[in-house]
Amino acid sequence: MKETQETVDFGVSTTQTGWNKHDTHWLLSLFGTAVGAGILFLPINIGLGGFWPLVLMALLAFPMTYLAHRGLARFVLSSKRSDADFTDVVEEHFGTRGGRLISLLYFLSIFPILLIYGVGITNTVDSFLVNQAQMVSPPRTLLSGVLVFSLIAIMLGGEKIMLRAFAVMVYPLAAILAALSLYLIPYWSMPSLAIPAAADFLQTVWLAVPVVVFSFSHAAAISSFANIQRRHYRKQAVVKSEQILKRTSVMLIAFVLMFVFSCILALSPQQLLEAKAQNVSVLSYLANATNNPFIATLGPLVAFVAITSSFLGHFLGARESLNGLLTKYTKLPLAVADKLGIALMFIAIWFAAVMNPSILGMMEALSGPVIAMILFIMPMLAVFKVDALRNYRKHLGTYFVLLVGMLAVSALLFSLLG
Prior knowledge:
The protein contains 15 helices and 2 strands. The protein is mainly alpha-helical. It has a two-stranded antiparallel ribbon.
């Protein structure tokens, strides 16, 4: 069949059946959003549960990741308005009160992660300058201000600059993850293949669900992503969004799970416990345990690139949701709300980076249940409420995502209250 393509102003494609540069850029952007600094702790967090729960979670990782993000994208694209963002869609489907509450929770689920990344990138660069570059530690206020401003400046440069920045960062990030995974092969040892008791196995898998969910989450960028695909592809937006999301999920699962399995096979259960007790990333522990300068050098680079790429994706979601809240609550014009929102977020992230608080892990844990509800539960409930989504009511994937969402929320609440 001959490939068709229509164009509108500026040569933007609205109907295109083949894969193109635009799709590749968004694949890289979503990949970069998902692969944050948390990947460096993922082998420790998931490896402690044993080999067989790890195998099961690896098998479930793709459907959990792809189906959930596909559902959220479908939800955003279900609006009758062609320019609707996440805040508009939830208000349209759940009413003014419910919509604004969900929008506020959505923003509050993303924003603490930006604070964490502001602290993380400052600490990573400061550590690199002192330990690797043998420099004197610069004033924290100046260093954090320059770093946070630089990251936000990339976002203010527009969609093209943002996508190019992702392309520059994600290719080396994927290459380094693959290189490290292969480099660790000589350190591999046979894991324990003992089958755990059924109760222990099920509890381990249950508590591992949120770990896997958030390690692969790129929910913060989905609303902007879906909107841009609607503007770019119009009637084909749903099909093209799902195509890009599917390839993103495959790339995520391939590179991240290869890294996770390689790290876990290179460390004993006792070493994983020791790494968890020390509260260091798996690369930092491996560098210390093996006294390996190659790993010690790559560790800060991976952390810097991962934090930077994930920061950009999460800032995209926070900016959009805050703009929606400000324009609806204060009636400010969008241009004014955007500038005010960016200024407020810059000050807050900079302040957190300067103060370097130790409570950010708890903030991330508290935002976790909200992300699970926004990504897994809310879009699936909308399937039974919104006429535009009624075709998905009998799909098995709808019930699978809803179940995973309930497991993730209950496991997170159990961990917080336990």
